Amino acid sequence: MGMQRISVNVNGADVEARVEPRLLLSDFIRHDAGLTGTHVGCEHGVCGACTVEVDGAPARSCLMFAVQVEGAVIRTVEGLTASAGPEGWSVLQQSLHEHHGLQCGFCTPGILMSLQPLLTAEEDPDETQIREALAGNLCRCTGYENIVNAVMAALAQVRSSRAA
Amino acid sequence: MKPASFDYLRVHSVEEALTALHDGPEDSKIIAGGQSLVPLLNFRLAEPALLIDINDLHELSFVRRVGGALRIGALTRHSTLEKSAVVRDGWPLLQEAVRFVAHPQIRSRGTIGGSVAHADSAAELPVALAALDAEFVTRSVSGSRRIPWRDFFLGPMTTALEPGELLVEVRVPLLRKSHGHAFVEHTRRNGDFALAGAGVVLDLNSDRRCSRISVALLGAAPTPVRATDAEDCLLGAVITEERAARAAKMAAEAGSPSGDLHGSVAYHRSLLEVVVRRAILAANLRVQEP
Amino acid sequence: MQDTIGTLPLVGRALGRIEDRQLLSGTATFLDDIPIPGALHVAYVRSNVAHGTITAMDTRAARELTGVRAVITADDLDHVPPLVTPVANAANPPRHLLAKGVVRYVGEPIVAVVATSRYVAEDAAALVAVDIDPLPVVCTLAESLDPSKPVLHAGAGIDSNVLFDRVLESGDPDSAFQRAAHVIERTFRHSRVAPVPMETRGAAATIVEDELVLWASSQFPHALKETVSDLLGVEKVRVKCPDIGGGFGLKSLASPEEILVAWAAMYLNEPVKWVEDRSENLIASAHARDMEVSVRVAADHDGVLLAMEVDALCNTGAYSVHPITHTLEAAGVLSMTPGPYRLAHYRARARAMATNTCPAGPYRGVGLPVATLVHERVMDILADELGFSAVEIRRRNLITSDELPYLTATSQKYDSGDYVASLEAAAEMIGYDSFPSEQRAARSSGTLLGLGFATYVEWTGNNSKLFKQRGMTALKGWDSCQLDLDQDGRVSVWTSSPSIGQGTATTYAQVLADATGIAIDDIDIVQSDTGTGEVDGNGTGSSRSASVTSGAIILAGTELKSRLIEDAAALLDVPADELQIVDSEVSEHAGHERSIDVRILAGKADPGRYNIGRTFEADDVLYSYATHACRVSVDSETGEVDILQYVVAEDCGRVINPLIVEGQTKGALAQGIAAALYESFHYDEAGQPQTGSFMDYLVPTACELPRVTIRHLEIPAPNGILGAKGVGEGGTIAAGAAIANAVSNALASEHNTLPLRPEVLQGHARAIFENLH
């Protein structure tokens, strides 16, 4: 099958590659771009481990093909870390650590990328809304409670720094 | 779980898409959001020869009010509908329904056209559109068609779209400003396809009698259907608890749900009754003072 | 430990986890992240028929596909003996790495395709044509007992589908039943579930000089190493673990798919890798808990248990799982169904049945979630029938702290704790006293509330003796560590139990820092690698790492500390008993006048002086326990259950890190709730899986799981080295029973089958209101 050339910005760097049309974006990010922080958990769009930002919105990278992101801007968990403060962690990363919101950590990058819009939204989500925002990411280790606590704490911190 | 090989064509205009559909191999497939198609490809349950990617057809991404009616471009993402002020103000049922579609990461990619054309019998948007008496605009190299929802959904994942035809727009007629609406569904987990669902739109006249109603059902048939018996039962009546319960019972009895791992036919039917009743009552409460 | 090293500045503190940094930043290395240049990829052709004879196979088209390097069938593996997992007094079916002649479940590997990418491997797999003549299918427990059905392993000389049939008897149950005032008989069922770690299984093999290096997402690297070595006849095998994305028991198996990766790498002399996809994981890795347990229970007028008779049937699937065995769940139910209750007269029979389904394997709690469902439902049924409260019936039967250690009818020696205290604590936490009036008030306004308890006791930190008793002769009861202090003053620690997500690196570092006085920041816990030092042992699983592996770390750490002090004493000319180590500095107790940094000692020492390995095995099994309690409401229209409140009063002995212990409890609980309300792996009559995707197999999301309140009783284990008992599985063990009890309470009817099906609950809920009107 014919290879296609793509050019895509991943975490601020331009990446050029020749890819088979059927190459999943998740495989492209992991194996072609070498960013293995994005994980693959089900390849049918349910578990959310592969979530990345495509042009600013979280999307399942297992449900897109690399050829489709020609010209797009992708951000992965590695990009999140690079853009964070002096500790190298975003508010949510720090909060997940403090609240023990991860165990095996396999689902964590997908959760981080899924929740970015929540952290920057105007609205002030309650616990139910936080749980709904999390529901597209399966975690088998934590039972979610500590993740929810971490998100709530991160939101409180974001809000107080906004107010300041 | 890797897809089989396919050719890929990214089109930049509707005309280009139509030509590709016309000239391409018989088993060409349009890919828009891909949120239903790509799982099928990954499981190798579908192996199209050519994928025609319409994500660059920005002309098909719009939500606008034209002469009082709502026009939604087929490439409009669920997340756009979710946030659209036009939809919220004029057709809030659609907004309520789209929030039941999977999860935010799916809604950021999935499109209304994809949901309609895929025609999964458990999908929310086709049911909401049935409640809203929507029609679908298609195009092909030989012209354009407007297909009422009733004539569009033919069976599970089967529609009236002909080979070479592309769904380009969804049209929803004007609703009274004061109308009441509700979309209620029952799932086992948040974001799952529903076991039963109902979309209700109704108007009341000045003595709070129901002057117009549509009750569309999810999980009552292989396609979206309207509960006409229930609608007849409510039309002209004051919607009390008892009346809603009676209409819901009629809707459930007229439906022909399937049993599955989650429960028998009777259980699914009972869920239909529950969601219909809850939707009627919720819609009734939401009617603004006529 | 307190006696040997004095204070414990870090043990007991809720330190943030060391392992989080890489996991949060996306720089962790899971199996599929390991850079292996030129690695070839495996895809398996799996049986799409539950039972049948392979009549023909055509692999030509697959072999001819560009990018395909090998298409491996059973014929290529003639020299490889089948896997046989020996259990005394049981039939032990052989398992070929690839199906040979007969397939016995949907998903059984038949052909392995090795190609330049997983995409091409799957293309080629799709081109392999396998003709299978279907045979009658044995899917359910009833079918496995039906003499008209085929015997799965007749070809191996096994003449029955009953692979294991053991009876255990103690006391005089017959006369106890005769004199009993009250006898109940019930059958309890637990549906089949799947462990579902978010990272699937996987292995990658390379040949480095003359050594086979096998990277594996494995809980039991040493067992895997020995299995590969024995089966493939390779002398030098090294198993290395990358970061592991959850295991829950599943990854303690040495599976055919992983062993075959090793074989293929040797055959091709090229690196080969297999990463299981989710479909394979759900259909063909290992399932668990498919069981039916019938009991007869005798009690006196006062609700005191007199005798119990148990008949347990376990659907063990098509093959044994190595090295855990096909008898693990049966043996677990056999031994642990008396639970935390005083019982003198007991007779139990447990059978493990072969069927044409995915093999049953170890999954968090192994046998105990079912044993607990049985004894806790029995308690509530007795309470209802005799007019006692759920708390009172348990008070009357729980073994009291005065009676410990207590030797049970099944030869378990429960060691320590206070079961009654855990019950009372849970009752208080859940608001038991005020519940009946709240329940009545709710019901009159149309809401069905229920409250349920579950108390259990659990074997943790299993030693060799217990594994032998459970029939798992291939399992080691010990674990070990090797530590090395380098010239920069950093201690590296290798252990036999890999970290699979439970935070063991942090736990071990806390323990070692306290045992040695080395600063915790100077400690590196290295992921398991069978090629390091003398490290050997069981691996991580069955709630053992915090107690057993920590034991080895304490022994090694204590030795390191004494060598450091001995060497410092000589250098500083101070008696050793006047020296301490704090924050990596050896100093005098009084005044810190003379001191020396461990770096300096490390620089001066002979090579190997501070390289120490130790092994630990508990003399006695450590028995953890807890009482769970929950409040639920049942939607009378849909039958859906909502958990309103969930509390746990647990005793895992000394809590090394409360953050981690509570994380384990909450996470384990989530899996227990999942099996109680959502998850169930289904087959149709033909043995075809019906729940092979996350669309159908309902792993709960954040919206389905409740908050949990936990209280620790923290009564140290008298026999453990640190007083810590295992905690990894407890949450899973009791959740099903607690929820079944709460729902039964809400609906005033018995619910003895998990998962609780909404349709069934809806029927009972409607009946309540119909009766009211």
TrEMBL record, chain A:
InterPro entries given in the database record: 2Fe-2S-bd, 2Fe-2S-bd_dom_sf, 2Fe-2S_ferredoxin-like_sf, 2Fe-2S_ferredoxin-type, 2Fe2S_fd_BS, Beta-grasp_dom_sf, Diverse_Oxidoreductases
Segments forming domain 2Fe-2S ferredoxin-type: 4-80
UniProt organism field: Pseudonocardia sulfidoxydans NBRC 16205
Classification via CDD domains: fer2
Recorded superkingdom: Bacteria
Protein's recorded name: (2Fe-2S)-binding protein
The keyword Cytoplasm is annotated on this UniProt entry: no
Any GO molecular function: 2 iron, 2 sulfur cluster binding
Gene3D superfamilies per record: 3.10.20.30, [2Fe-2S]-binding domain
Alphabetically ordered keywords of this record: 2Fe-2S, Iron, Iron-sulfur, Metal-binding, Oxidoreductase
Pathway where this protein functions: Alkaloid degradation; nicotine degradation
One of the Pfam families matching this protein, by short name: Fer2_2
Automatic annotation (TrEMBL), chain B:
The FAD-binding PCMH-type domain, residue ranges: 1-177
Keyword Aminoacyl-tRNA synthetase: no
Cited PROSITE patterns: FAD_PCMH
UniProt keyword annotations, A-Z: FAD, Flavoprotein, Oxidoreductase
Coiled-coil blocks: none
One Pfam family from the record: CO_deh_flav_C
GO MF term list: FAD binding; oxidoreductase activity
Protein name: Carbon-monoxide dehydrogenase medium subunit
Source species of the chain: Pseudonocardia sulfidoxydans NBRC 16205
Gene, per the UniProt record: cutM
